[in-house]
Amino acid sequence: MESRAILATGFGPRKCAKIGQPLKDQISRLPDEILVYILSCLTLKEAARTSVLSKRWIDLWRSMACLDFDASKVLKKMFSISSWGRYADFVRKERCKYVEWVDKVLLQSDKSLALDDLRVAFCLDNFYGDKIHKWLQHAFARRVQRLELNLFADDDPPSSQESYTFHYELFCLSSGQSQPGYSEIHHHAQIGFKSLRALSLKSLNVTGEVLEFFLINCPFLERLVVEASSVLINLRVCGPSIALKYLEVCCCLMLQSIIVSDTNLVSLKTTEAHHLVLQNVPMLVNVWVSGNSRNLVRDVTSWLSCCLSKLEVLTLRANKFQVSQEKGIVHELPQLTNLKEFVLIASASKDHSLIGFTSLIRASPNLEKFVLKLESWWDDMVRRDRKLKKAASFPLQHLKVVELLGYYGRRSELELVEYFLENAIVLEKLIIDPRDPRNVTWPKTRKERKQEKKQEKLARICAKQQIEGLIPSHIEFSIL
Amino acid sequence: MIVLNSSDGATFEVEESVAVQSQTIKHMIEDNCADTSIPLPNVNGVTLARVLEYIKKHAEAKDDEEGLKSFDAEFVKVDQASLFEIILAANYLDIKGLLDLTCQTVADQIKDLTVEEVRAIFNIMNDFTPEEEAKLRNDHAWAFE
User: Of the residues A19, A88, A384, A477, which has the fewest C-beta atoms closer than 10 A?
Assistant: First the structure.
């Protein structure tokens, strides 16, 4: 008996040992479904290890309804190799391993067991097209509900010839067709794909026609995410029979048009809003858009003109940091009468002023929460010593909460703090958080974390010095 | 007020609005099987008391996220046998939050341990021959990296 393990968890059969009874296997009292439920809280690898515990556990892990083939540790290692020769070798070896792993687990699984989630995320290109096609067939045959396929482009966008191409024809043959290779699984996949509720396709070739095919034929498809498809030219999301509630289209550089009309879409995220045509989307209340221009505020009001007055949450990502201060146009901007939350994501590079965005705040009479997320690179943390810019005075009647994430004590941030202290007459909470607001895909190295912690500490001190004195006592002020 | 009877004859009173966190009890009430009291032959008194503690707390402090988090953390600090009793009860009574909490607790224990350590903690008897175990480990080599 490993006493170390028992003592470590403070949790053990000591009681039984005292009264001299044999130590009981309590966990075996739990029925299979509960054991599988417990296993589904673990990663795929951790769960598979339990197959060795005892004969009862051999295949329990196979009943897990969620399969996440996560290899983020390997991917992080891969992207940190500097020598091309070593990189190429590493990639080749790891790709084979990954493909073998998915083959083993997915293709050997019980095809009649419904699959809730499947996530395949690794840098694979069209060379593995047949394999990927097989995996998708199996997933659809198992009536997968949430499918994510993320094939990670290399740094430079790969030519569309190299990327895996998603063909729906391959598994949706008409039932009369009999061909060599047509199998039972084809048949199940043809029916099974209609169980889709969420589909996420990143860094592969998928056309608008394929996406529209899914939208029309999957009666439960509520969530669609497409990222980095260089063959996505046009996308139409139209018609009240479409169940889609959440749509995300990002980094599709060849996109020429997205038309969203006559649907019940609730939430939209896109980096291609300049190609967006929105019409009759009465349920659309949550939008995320990004833009490059200096007149971003005006652009946004024109892109979203048909739903501007119904929006409840707006997230705006300003790719360029110079925003012209639009002082006089507060009356020209259409009102965002229902906007409750405004999130602004901006680069804090070189401490350029963000005060121009307050025009959008003034056009949102019912705004309750404002969040600023500042993204900066650790070698770009600069504080300029310039005069604070001011914006037009305008009482903000409902703004209660202001959060500044990625705070560093720059002039651009102080300007905003002063603006809110002056104009937000019902302000209740001001939260300053110096931590990086980005959801970084890779865990950071120890050196990076050390540098970050140093900067966070500095930022906290700055915030205390600069702001604490300015806050009236009725406002809850916290530095996280 | 709803009256619940445990397997060993103990009686508990609880507000209906709190009791319906258990989908099982909710359906019994809806189907009018709850006239006098609800018998729960699969749950003993001690466990039922703990479960009621959970659902009462989660009903009254519904919006206090921080408070509930610390309550939950303390709630699962019990011995193994009790934890499994609560899991079985949560499953039978269909209380999703409690089932998620307790199963996650067990999962967190398995997470960082080796196979031998897991066997030790849960007293699972290894009924494989060394050859069988070696073959299994080899088949799933990808899981043991």
Answer: A19
- As for the ipTM of the complex, it is 0.92
Please, what's the b/e burial string for A131-158 (b: 16 or more CB within 10 A of its CB; e: otherwise)?
bbbbbbbbbbbbbbbbbbbbbbbeeeeb
Chain A residues whose beta carbon lies within 8 Å of the beta carbon of residue B124: 25, 27-28, 53-54, 57
Written as six digits, the tokens of A180 are 């060599």
Distant-in-sequence, close-in-space partners of B54: CB < 8 Å, separation ≥ 6 = B75, B95, B98
Written as one string, the DSSP assignment of A181-193 is T--HHHHHHHHHG
Q: What is the pLDDT of residue A20?
A: 45
Give A99's contacts (C-beta < 8 A, 6+ positions apart).
A124, A128, A131
Task: Map tokens 């009574």 to a residue.
Answer: B93
Helix (H) or strand (E) holding A133: helix A129-141
- With a CB cutoff of 8 Å and minimum separation 6, the contacts of A420 are A370, A396, A399, A402, A427, A430
Strands (E) across A271-389 are located at: 276-279, 286-291, 313-318, 341-347, 369-375
Q: Reduced to 3 states, what is the DSSP secondary structure of residue A234?
A: strand
- Per-residue pLDDT tens for A137-173? 899 999 999 999 999 865 444 555 678 888 776 666 4
Mean pLDDT of A121-128: 90
- A190: nearest Cα among A137, A228, A260, A256: A137
For A229-241, write each residue's pLDDT tens digit.
Answer: 999 999 999 988 8
SS3 state at A285: coil
Cα separation, A162 vs A205, whole angstroms: 9
Q: Are A224 and A248 in contact (CB under 8 A)?
A: yes
Mean pLDDT rounded to a whole number for chain A? 84
DSSP class of A432: E
Structure tokens at A366: 């019912």
Q: How far apart are CA A38 and CA A57, in angstroms?
A: 12
Distance CA A119, CA A188 (A): 20
Å from B86 to nearest chain A CA? 11
Is the confidence at residue A17, as pLDDT, over 50? no
Confidence of residue B72 (pLDDT cuts 50, 70, 90): very high
- Select the residue from B82, B88, B112, B119 to test the A interface by mutation, using most A Cβ atoms within 10 A: B119
The lowest-confidence range among A383-392, B40-49, B102-111 is A383-392
Reading the block at residue A229, the tokens are 């498809």
Question: Which of B46, B34, B53, B51 is closest to B7 using CA atoms?
Answer: B46
pTM: 0.84
CA distance A101 to A415: 53
- Token digits for B123? 């007293």
Provide the b/e sequence for A364-389 (b: ≥16 CB within 10 Å).
Answer: bbebbbbbbbbbbeeeebeeeeeeeb
Q: Does A473 touch chain B (CB under 8 A)?
A: no
Partner B, chain A 344-363, Cβ-Cβ below 8 Å: none
CA distance A13 to A21: 10
Q: Residue B41, CB half-sphere, CA atoms under 13 Å: how many?
A: 0
Q: What is the DSSP string of B2-28?
A: EEEE-TTS-EEEE-HHHHTTSHHHHHH
B chain contacts of residue A55, beta-carbon cutoff 8 Å: 127-128
Where are any strands of DSSP class E within A92-245?
Answer: 117-121, 146-150, 198-202, 223-227, 234-238
